[in-house]
Predict the 3D structure of the following.
Amino acid sequence: MEKNLFREVYKQVSGLALKDCPSSSLSGLLHGYLSVYSMVRVYPWLEDDYGSLWDIHDRIREIARVIQELLKDKDLPVDTRAGYVVDLMDAYLLYSDMKFVDVALDAAYEILIPKGSDKIVLPCRTPNICRLLCNCYYFTEETDVAQLAIRLVMETLGQNRIFTSIEMLYWMKALILFKNVFNEIQIPAIEHEYFQIKRRGEQYENEKIENFCFNGLKDLYSINDVFEILARREFVLYGEKCKQK
């Protein structure tokens, strides 16, 4: 069912005008397209289903340009700003010109280093800040960044916090990135909590998909949100199928 639903949702998002999308939905839309891009790049015959790699790349650049404009607002809350910067970093990985990554890194360090200081700090303890630290470390391999990311994750998972469903989902995404970037680091004390969050986050995603299917949720935020989930799952599922052949 998810495969057919994904194709249907992909058609919907392909026709969306970005000016009509709530700013809070752009991250989901962007990461959905990043998953589609990865899928078509690895399995080029899928261009027949999802369009050419260049067209998908162009759509990603279009979304990134909108996010760039949103970042010009100097009154953005720090967590929102961090989320936008991480989204741009993810998009810029596809660009051939690394100067875009440098621009995003500059914006990241403006968030992490207070004015008048030369030391990075945690401006807040949120999934977006965790993602920001992970991406900064991926590009720079700075020890201070790694230590701060590990500290944030240990604090978050080590205090038996009760998360709301949406917090669970955001932390699941951040922790998956953390595990991918710091795959050589094993922290036994938090492994159980990590898998609990991942399991519950996936359950919440399933609920989102069910609500979308059966309750007729057709607002742009829901469409982009479900698109991100389905695109990521489709990429993983397709890879597993190819391995079995």
Remarks:
- The radius of gyration is 18 Å.
- The chain is about 75% helix and 0% strand.
- Residues 74 and 111 are 12 Å apart (CA to CA).
- The chain has a mean pLDDT of 89.
